[in-house]
Amino acid sequence: MAATTTMQWAPHDYQLLAKQDAYKTMEAELKKLYDTAPEDDPAKKETLRKDFEGFKKLFTRFLQEKSPHINWEKIQPLREGAVLPYADINQRELTPEVCSNLLSKLVVLKLNGGLGTSMGCKGPKSLISVRSGLTFLDLTVQQIEELNRKYNSEVPLVLMNSFNTDEDTEKILRKYKSCQVKIFTFNQSRYPRINKESLLPIATDVCESNLEAWYPPGHGDTYKAFAESGLLDQFIKEGKEFVFVSNIDNLGATVDFSILNHMVNPPNGPMSEYVMEVTDKTRADVKGGTLVGYEDKLRLLEIAQVDKDHVDEFKSVTKFKFFNTNNLWMKLSGMKRLVDKNELDMEVIVNNKTLGDGLGVIQLETAVGAAIKNFHNAIGVNVPRSRFLPVKKTSDLLLVMSNLYDMDNGFLDMSAKRQFKTVPLVKLGSHFEKVQEFLRRFENIPDMLELDHLTVSGDVTFGKDVSLKGTVIIVAEHGNRINIPPGALLENKIVSGNLRILDH
């Protein structure tokens, strides 16, 4: 390999020799892997070299960190103005001309590296049908196209793919050629999974088809991968100034003019290079990352960084009131500065996995929100819950497919017919985990406009035109099956395994 990373160790480290040995052994194994790459594909070898250099830096930090946990005593209260209420930045009326000018400075980047395996689907998660036969990607393209049409703008859509999603995504992009949206893609890095015991790569060949030997290293890789793709420099040259980054499966993560205007035209004080959208924490969000003061900077604190003695305190909805939606707004010049000067400092996340054959492996990852402490004048904005509408499970899918939401040009909004703007709590059992099985169990999606809480457990199916109101609990005991008949109205009911329907 052409370039090497020199290891810098802190003095007096009692594990110094062991760590140096682990690093040298890793470096030798990566050299062996690199040498298996075909000589007739220089582009692939260069990509591999960059990936391995990035991985070595992450592995170095993994070895050097004495503890993954934060020093709890050093956590500070959030400074005044660190998190702004959305209402404070949503006060200015924006004309169509102002909106058009704002959009001329914007790039939209969607994180598209995930697979749909957790919901029983093959291929990229972004290609799962979520509403009226439209996929996450369809809805995203529709949203950007509508903005470009309405404001005569040219907002580009950028997809950060992984090696897991790139090929399938590229095939599907052909159908958007006639759309009024320029779509760009780039791939995040591909790092080797390492054996938990030996701390060595489990891959033996870079060309092998064993995908389990490799992984995409989390969305913290966005900065480096975006820069190395050439797109960061390209957009800056074209006059773009800001990028809106979000998960493609968050259907609430749409372009927000108030936040963008606050960055472009700060009402007082210096411009923020980075805005993280946070929203009020509920009991369902206690594991979500939160913003804290730490060493006089704004910092994202994840549950993995909290030692077990403080986990309950971390989960408190009174002490830590917000959680990170992963809707992030950044100034492109700030991103470029941090990448060029190698000043991005994101905590290493150690993700333990067990492969199909039972082998324990480690994935070293970083989170895109962890870089908040590196940007100038970074702030949080406490946004409405409607901007956080992720689809991680089929229970989320049921909500967005229902009449709780109206859809217009790819945008989902809570129905005006729903009296309370809170989202019902829905818990579906293991029979509903996979999308195909979930769809088979509903002849059509029930009326949920007046639903507060739904729990379904066991072998349950729903006929056509069922209405669910208030709190509904349906439990089919093992060996029993419950068929909710067509046209049924269940309001504050418990339906048990012997089909008795009780008032709740």
Give average pLDDT, whole number. Answer: 91
Distance between the termini: 67 Å
Low-confidence runs: none
The Cα radius of gyration reads: 24 Å
The total beta strand count reads 27
Helix percentage: 25-40%
Helix tally equals 13
Describe the largest sheet: 8 strands, mixed
Within the largest sheet, what's the order of strands? 2-18-12-15-11-3-6-7
Q: What proportion strand?
A: 25-35%
Any descriptors?
eight-stranded mixed β-sheet, 504 residues, 27 strands, 13 helices, five-stranded mixed β-sheet, globular, single chain, alpha/beta
What does this structure look like?
The protein is an alpha/beta fold. It is 25% helix and 25% strand. It is built from 13 helices and 27 strands. The strands form eight sheets. An eight-stranded mixed beta sheet has the order 2-18-12-15-11-3-6-7, with helices on both faces. A five-stranded mixed beta sheet has the order 21-22-24-26-27, covered by helices on one side. It has a three-stranded antiparallel beta sheet with strand order 1-13-14, with no helix packed on it. Helix 1 runs antiparallel to helix 2 (42-64).
Briefly say what this structure is.
This protein is an alpha/beta fold.
Topology:
Layout (H helix, E strand, L loop, with lengths): L15 H20 L6 H23 L10 E2 L6 E3 H4 L6 H8 L2 E7 L16 E3 L2 E2 H16 L5 E5 L4 H7 L10 E5 L3 E2 L1 E2 L18 E2 L6 H7 L2 H7 L4 E6 L9 H8 L9 E7 L9 E5 L2 E5 L9 H4 L7 E10 H9 L8 E6 L5 E6 L13 E4 L11 H8 L3 E4 L2 E4 L10 E4 L6 H6 L10 E7 L1 E4 L4 E9 L5 E4 L4 E7 L5 E3 L1
Parallel strand pairs: 2-18, 3-6, 3-11, 6-7, 12-18, 21-22, 22-24, 23-25, 24-26
Antiparallel strand pairs: 1-13, 4-5, 8-10, 9-17, 11-15, 12-15, 13-14, 16-17, 19-20, 26-27
Helix pairs in contact: 1-2
